[in-house]
Design a protein that fits this description.
The chain has about 200 residues and is α/β, with parallel strands linked by helices. It has six helices and seven strands. It is about 30% helix and about 15% strand.
Length: about 200
């Protein structure tokens, strides 16, 4: 094989809380882990389309001393267990324990903490992923901006029960969806189009 002839794999980067599992503030108990409707089915479809699946999550509870990294691992393991029961797989996950100094989710205070792109770029480097052909899905503007700042092809905002006040017209949002099934359907549609330009903004479903 000629050097440089291998094409990098695209990925779908996903926020965890409010996107894959029910949002529980500073979740520490694995008994509180609940998959959101459509999460497993959406992840299965995403991998069928040839995308790696990567969880990207801010976890300031670790930095605040409210839980340990080992406790976080247990919570993540329970999420993975529940997903596996429904045939869904997570290829990688990254977390940032940095405690934010302010409350503005659009400001980068740490390159790894969303909306910073650091965790996405780390995973892309380690898994040989093509960020320019990848997507970001989350329920907060910081999630979407992390994808935009990393150079993702497009970004999805999940309209969950906890984020009904977000600005759907924000320039960083390409699609608004109700769950990961809708996101996977949109990605499937866009995958047959040109690599660029990015998909048009709008509500899906």
């Amino acid at each position: 094989m000629r050097r440089g002839s291998t094409r990098l794999r695209p990925a779908v980067f996903l926020d965890r809380d409010g996107t894959v599992i029910k949002h529980v503030h500073y979740i520490r108990d694995p008994a509180d882990v609940r998959l959101l409707p459509g999460a497993a089915a959406g992840l299965r479809r995403i991998r069928e389309l040839g995308y790696a699946t990567v969880i990207i999550t801010n976890q300031s509870a670790v930095g605040r001393g409210l839980m340990t990294a080992a406790q976080l691992d247990v919570v993540h393991a329970e999420m993975v267990r529940q997903l596996s029961l429904e045939g869904a797989v997570i290829d990688d996950w990254r977390f940032c324990s940095t405690v934010p100094a302010g409350g503005d989710r659009t400001v980068i205070e740490d390159p790894r903490r969303k909306p910073g792109p650091g965790m996405l770029l780390e995973s892309a480097r380690d898994l040989n992923l093509d960020v320019s052909r990848s997507w970001m899905i989350g329920d907060m503007i910081s999630d979407v901006l992390a994808g935009r700042n990393a150079g993702c092809r497009g970004c999805f905002m999940v309209r969950s029960t906890g984020n009904t006040a977000f600005d759907a017209a924000h320039d960083a949002i390409d699609f608004v969806v109700r769950n990961l099934i809708e996101a996977a359907t949109a990605i499937s549609t866009q995958s047959v189009l040109q690599e660029r330009p990015a998909p048009p903004s709008g509500e899906w479903g």
